[in-house]
Amino acid sequence: MAASTHLLTPENCALVLIDHQAGLAFGVQSMDRQVLLNNTVALARTARAFDLPIVISTSATKVYSGPLLPDLQAELPAHPVIDRRSMNVFEDEAALAAIEATGRKKLLFSGMLTEACISFAVLSAQEAGFDSYVVADTCGGLTETGHELALRRMQDGGATMTSWLQVVLELQRDWTRKATYDAARAVIARNGGGYGIGLNYARDMLPR
After folding, report:
1. What pLDDT, on the 0 to 100 scale, is given for residue 3?
2. Interatomic CA distance for residues 97 and 151, integer angstroms
3. Mean pLDDT of 122-133
4. What is the pLDDT of residues 25-79, one digit of tens each?
5. Which helix (H) or strand (E) holds 183?
6. Whole-angstrom Cα distance, residue 189 to residue 184?
7. 8, 29, 37, 57: which has the highest count of C-beta atoms within 10 A?
């Protein structure tokens, strides 16, 4: 059976992290900020587990938003961070060049704020011929309503909504894929809440 062209694979997608900064996180009201941070770190760990190209961009670091969140910096310590003036990464030459340099047409988007820097980038990516996947539970909005409306607008523009857990499971897909099994399982065990507890329980119950 031929592989689906709709599913994400480690070879066909890249991760774009936009404005994961404390100054913006302060304003997030669409979900619990600690949950948002947990989910975003899980997504970054997933990208590392499957060796996805990663583009990290920030904005207004000196005047309001501050640097990349420390938890993400700890996960990606040597990764370059592109600082922008424009809200839209697709209107910033350096950020756009970094995205194009990945050579991937499927882009996973994560960041803040959903109503602005995420939606602007995703709608521009769709227009530019990319397939956009919004990892919605790693995006924060100023309000629940604003977040949902932004997600709806992006979906109407052709983007696909997903979650960090769906991403890691979709990339792994087959637990006999030993090359990424341990790393993928570790992400879920560490960040997957009850599902992670269950995986650890099952491991401990297996005969040794």
Report:
1. 63
2. 25
3. 98
4. 999 999 999 999 999 999 999 999 999 999 999 999 998 899 999 999 999 999 9
5. helix 178-191
6. 9
7. 57
Residue for token digits 């194009």?
100
On whether the CB atoms of residues 147 and 141 are closer than 8 A, the answer is yes
**Residue 131 to residue 27: CA distance in whole angstroms:** 29
CA distances from 63 to 2, 40, 105, 182, 205 (A): 51, 24, 33, 41, 52
What residues contact 139, with CB distance under 8 A and at least 6 apart? 109, 110, 111, 112, 114, 118, 147, 151
| Choice among 13, 37, 43, 117 that is catalytic | 117
Query: For residues 136 and 164, what is the distance between their CA atoms, to the nearest angstrom?
Result: 8
pLDDT digits (tens, 9 = 90+) for 178-196: 999 999 999 999 998 887 7
For residue 14, the number of C-alpha atoms closer than 13 Å in the C-beta half-sphere is: 18
Ramachandran sector of residue 67 (left: φ over 0; alpha: ψ -120 to 50; beta: rest): beta
Q: By the 8 A CB rule, do 163 and 135 touch?
A: yes
Map out the domains of the chain with their CATH numbers: 13-171 (3.40.50.850)
The answer to whether residue 139 is catalytic is: no
Give the three-state DSSP class for 65: coil
How far apart CA 178 and CA 115 sit, in angstroms, is 39
Cα-Cα-Cα-Cα torsion 195, 200, 206, 207, nearest 10 degrees, comes to 180
